[in-house]
Amino acid sequence: MTLGSRGGGAALRFHCRGLVMAWVEDPGKRDLNYNELQEFPIAIRMLGRLQELGFHNNNIRAIPEKAFMGNPLLQTIHFYDNPIQFVGRSAFQYLPKLHTLSLNGATDIQEFPDLKGTTSLEIL
């Protein structure tokens, strides 16, 4: 994964198994589903206008502290069907527009994250 700039907006390049390259540009909806991602791409924080993010059906085992620190406009995050074992306590804090957070299938999480500041959360 590399971070770059194209056309004045932030962009991320994801290399999956060295064969596939896709540009993810800010803003809006981003679909990173079915990419066999092993790690949470922390460069997501650079996409400040991101509103919807799909990470389902990957191999992500951990969501780090302050994972979405730079994404205050996020409304929907789909993490279902990942073997998530750890979620940083502050991973989802201060996302005032977050409406939907899907962690279905993450049965190995020992401690649920602090949802402080997620005042719009309706679907968990």
From TrEMBL:
Pfam families: LRR_8 (PF13855). Keywords: Leucine-rich repeat, Repeat. It comes from the Eukaryota. The keyword Cell membrane does not apply. The keyword Signal does not apply. SMART domains: LRR_TYP. PANTHER family: AGAP008170-PA, INSULIN-LIKE GROWTH FACTOR-BINDING PROTEIN COMPLEX ACID LABILE SUBUNIT. This is Leucine-rich repeat-containing G-protein coupled receptor 6-like. It comes from Leptonychotes weddellii (Weddell seal).
